[in-house]
Each structure stands twice: as C-alpha cells, then as structure tokens.
Design brief:
The chain has 486 residues and is of the alpha+beta class. The chain is built from 15 helices and 15 strands. A hairpin with a 2-residue loop joins strand 11 and strand 12 (411-413).
Length: 486
C-alpha cells in the first residue's frame, strides 16, 4: 500500500511538471485539457498494472551419493525461525481503511452538497433558452457562472441588458464544452484519492485551462483583444461563485492576459506532443509492478542430474531386470475411471520402490527406454530443493491481495499473514499465473507457494527421498491391462 501511494504521488508530480515546463505556455488548450485529465487517471492506475517478466532460470544442481544438507546456504538459513510480530506495537489492519473511509466520505459529502446547492439555485428562478443552453435568472445579485448546460446570472442585470455579450459568450463556451464535467470528475478523484495532495494543483491547473478555452472562444469572434482584456480587468474584484461553477472572473487574470497575445508555433507544439507520447509508456513501465515467473519447484521435467556416485557393476539392464521392472509397475498400478468415463492408470509405489525403479531406468540403453516409452510410461526425478530467499521488495509486493494468492507451507492463508514474517524467513517460493477458468471466483492473478525456513528443514529429507515420479497416460487396452493393485 505504501509503495502504491508513493508511486501515485511521484507519477502525478512528474506529469504535472511536464505540463508546466512543456505544455502550459502553448496554445493547444484542447490537448492540454485531455492531458491533465488523463494524467490524473494515469497516475492513479499505472501503479496497479502488473507486468510479468521472463522466468528466472534455476541453477543446475549437483547431487552426491549421500544426501547431506549444505552447511552454508543463503543468509536466510541463519535467520531465526519465524514468529509472530509483537501485537502490542502493531496497529489494527482496519485502522488505515477506516481513516481513508472517513475522509473520503466527508469529501464526497461536501461535493454532493455543492452540487445540490447548484441544483437548488434553479428552483424558483426563471429560465430563458439561449442558443444551446438555458439562462437561469436568479433574484440574488451574484457573479455570472455556468454549471453544465445552465448559465446563472442576476435577473435584474439581464432585464436591464447590463451583461456584456463577451461574458455571455465566455460562459456559453464553458457550458458547450462541458467544463463542469471536468470539475466534477476532479472533485471525485480528490475525494477518493485524497492522500495525493498534488490533485489539488491539478484542479487549479485544469480550471485555468478552462478559462483559456473560454477566452479563446470569445476572441475567435469579432471581439477586440484589448477591449476584452479591459473587460476582464473590470470584473477582477467580483466575488467568485460556487466551487463547482465555471465563472468569468476566475482569478488567473495575469496568465490569461498573457496567453491572449501568445503566438503559435506548430512545429514546437508537435515536438512537445511527441515527447509526451514517448514519456507515458516509459513511465507506465517504470511504475508497473514487476513479477518474475519462477521455474516451478515441482515442475515435472525429465532432467537427468549430474552424478558423482559409484557406477553400478552392471552397466546395462538385463532382460530379467526389465521383466521385473514392468512387473513391479503392474503390481503398484490401479485402474480407475475418471468422471468422463475414461480409464486411467494410477501408479503409487512407495518412495523406496520408486527410487529403485528410477535407478534401473537410468541404466537402460536407448532400446530399453524405447520399450518404456512405447507403453507410455514416464519416469522423472525432481531436483534437490535449495533454499532461496526473496528480496525485501519482492516480499512486500506479495502482500497485495489483488495480485497474489498465498499458500504458506501448503496452506492457503490471507496475504496479511506475511506481516508475521520477515523476508528472510521465506527460503523457497514458486509463482504461477492463473489463466481462464482458474481465475473465476478469485481476486488474484497469481498463485504463490511459499516455504518457511523451519518447514523447509522439517520436510527436507522426505522431499529428497520422494523426488521420483512415475506416470502413465490414461489409455486402456484390455490385453495389456495391469492387474489391479491395492
């Protein structure tokens, strides 16, 4: 969570700095409008994106004839066994969310009250159609302002025709271009992501760009620039309207006056737009969460391990040994029918028998192994498990419940259970991505199996001795069907 907050603030700060240094002084107001709105949404969503990086290749393991746990491992081996954190110094998990909810509710309530005040201002007021909008004539003396398709102005000033056409044209531009939608959208973002103070600067910058757009609409007609600037100065001291409204006298007069006389250079504008187009994907990649696919620990792979043990006396397997090999497999095979009505073979010998069969299989020549393959029998042995601790950054990233589902020592646990451990307490991890139907009913995208140092040591010998797997594809020939085992 802390990482997400930092990334949001950093991203929004970078994009706001790009606007002020590259875009603000250019007369490309429509582009700037959508850039500012997209920048806010981008800074809040980009840190939530997860990118899967290429898998890390496991180092080749060399085994010896007698299994001995290495005396020197990673730094994780020397760490103390995991234990629960001191609850007396840990804040309840719900406290930060409670604080967030209270502040967000208060800000949303304030925004709702402001919108309600704007709607109430219409009740009891005379409405006059004006081009594509409606004029709301209020009995109170108030500044001219707009809210969506409504322009609010004092009824007395309207009846006496005391409102200049430039002001009506200015507010008409606000209404037609739906600037109120931008303002409401910004207020909602501020309420829901109030922990990012830079959104307040975005709100100020967006409103200034609205004024640029409205001023540009006025000056696109026959209005003289100097006359309009004098009119703008005459209304400088007028009182502002409601916070959600777009008002003619919005207090950025100096910048607005300077922008009216700014010249346009299309080549410079194109170059700056190109910089923005290149910056966004680079920034998205830098902020996205990186997950590294691990080669599954239990991945079945017929990988032969380097041996330094003494070579057996018999270099090849005799015909009698081959017959005994198949007989042993048949004795430990059960014939079962699956849910689809097909027949499968389940081979379940003891670990000792599995190791003996694999030792015979290793001594077979190519012709003898072809006989095994013809019966669709496969034998493979897993690598010896090796301790490998994650980095602190990767460990903190695993606490995100929207990305990772956690299995700790073979049991499914909530992500918050990792708060009881240090990164060095984890000495083995296996990450796999979920696809298709496996994603249904799950809030996470990756399944992560973790092993603690204590559990690794406890199960090490059993896992080393039980590394051989024998499987047979589910086809059925009555003439070659094995006898039903136990």
């Amino acid at each position: 969570m802390v990482s997400y907050l930092i990334k949001c603030i950093v991203c929004s700060g970078i994009l706001l700095a790009v606007y002020h240094f590259l875009l603000e002084r250019e007369k490309m107001f429509r582009f700037n409008r959508f850039y500012l709105l997209a920048a806010m949404a981008f800074s809040l969503l980009a840190p939530l994106v997860t990118i899967e990086m290429p898998p890390q290749m496991a180092q080749e393991v060399v085994t010896v004839s007698r299994v001995v746990q290495p005396s020197h491992m990673t730094a994780a081996n020397d760490s103390p066994p995991p234990g629960p954190a001191q609850e007396s110094t840990t804040l309840p998990d719900c406290l930060p969310w409670l604080l967030y909810g209270l502040v967000a509710t208060a800000l949303l309530t304030r925004t709702g009250m402001q919108m309600l005040a704007m709607l109430r201002a219409r009740s009891g007021s005379r409405m006059v159609p004006f081009k594509s909008v409606k004029l709301v004539l209020t009995p109170r003396d108030m500044p001219v302002h707009s809210f969506f398709k409504f322009i609010f102005l004092p009824q007395k000033a309207f009846d006496t025709q005391a409102i200049p056409n430039e002001i009506l044209t200015h507010e008409l531009a606000h209404a037609r271009q739906m600037h109120s939608a931008d303002i409401v959208f910004t207020e909602l973002l501020i309420a829901l992501w109030w922990f990012n103070p830079l959104l307040l600067l975005y709100r100020r910058t967006i409103r200034l760009n609205h004024e640029y757009l409205a001023d540009d609409s006025v000056l696109a007609g026959a209005t003289d620039v100097k006359a309009y600037q004098l009119l703008l100065l005459d209304t400088l001291l007028a009182q502002r309207a409601t916070a959600l409204a777009s008002s003619f006298n919005y207090p950025f007069t100096k910048k607005r006056l300077a922008m009216m006389t700014t010249t346009i250079d299309l080549r410079i504008q194109f170059a700056k737009k190109l910089v923005v187009a290149l910056l966004l994907p680079a920034l998205a990649f830098a902020l996205a969460e990186k997950t590294y696919s691990q080669q599954p620990i239990s991945k079945p792979a017929p990988k032969l391990e380097k041996k330094v043990e003494i070579t057996p006396v018999s270099a090849e397997v005799s015909e009698a040994e081959m017959q005994q090999f198949f007989a042993t497999i048949e004795q430990n095979t059960r014939v079962v029918k699956n849910g689809k009505g097909r027949t499968d073979f389940h081979i379940n010998p003891s670990p000792e028998v599995e190791n003996e069969l694999y030792a015979v299989y290793e001594r077979m020549n190519d012709s003898q192994k072809a006989q095994i393959k013809a019966k669709k029998i496969m034998l493979f042995r897993m690598d010896i498990p090796v301790k490998k601790a994650p980095t602190p950054e990767i460990f903190e990233n695993w606490k995100r419940a929207d990305v990772f589902g956690i299995w700790l020592n073979g049991r499914h646990v909530p992500n918050s259970a990792l708060n009881k451990y240090k990164y060095s307490d984890i000495v083995e991890y296996d990450l796999s991505k979920l696809y298709g139907a496996a994603l249904k009913g799950r809030s996470y995208k990756y399944q992560l199996e973790l092993t603690t140092n204590e559990h690794f040591d406890k199960t090490y010998e059993q896992r080393v001795n039980d590394r051989v797997f024998i499987v047979r594809e589910g086809w059925y020939n009555p003439k070659e069907a094995p006898k039903k085992g136990k």
